[in-house]
Amino acid sequence: MRVSKEVKQATREKILRTAEKLFSEVGYLDTTTRQIAKEAGIAAGTLFNYFPSKETLAMSLLARAFEQGREDYQSYRSDEEDLNEELFLLISSELRRLKPYRSFVAPVLESTMSIFSKESGCPEGIATRSEHLATVQQAIQNHGFSNVPEHVATTLYWSLYLGILAFWSSDASRNQEQTLALIDYSLRVFTHTINDTAAQEVPNGY
User: Fold this and answer.
1) N or C, which terminus of the chain has less Cβ within 10 Å?
2) pTM
């Protein structure tokens, strides 16, 4: 019997909700796909029809949070921010949406969105990275840095951004105040660097 689109979507959502519950209660590393399937009331093989791995399943949860964070950023921004302020708003908006998943952000992002997973990461991780960087690149251009080579700006930014995510995932300071200070400092380093880059010719080959 052919399964309708609505049934497929409902099953996918049930798997996501079940995984989110188990990741929080049991822990991401200790949760197995077999446990998720059993709790969701489906066969293990059925789960893999929707998500080829636990990594992809977890990244799907995070991808939704990243997307909601970008939507928040778009609704909050006033077009009066400087580049530092705008990127701070983007990152902080994403972190607020990611907060429910903070306990398993680190191991998931390490394997799906690291600087080494550009070509081999899961599709959800690659898509999330691309969408975030497209938003950043648009902000950079809007603030007059259009002559900075994209690969220079995005490579530098992404390295700083992953460092922020890694620090935030285990930041025990009140309201993650240390993370907020790190975001501010990192973005000042970034904008200062691309400002210097824009003022000089980038050597061939970079």
Assistant:
1) N
2) 0.87
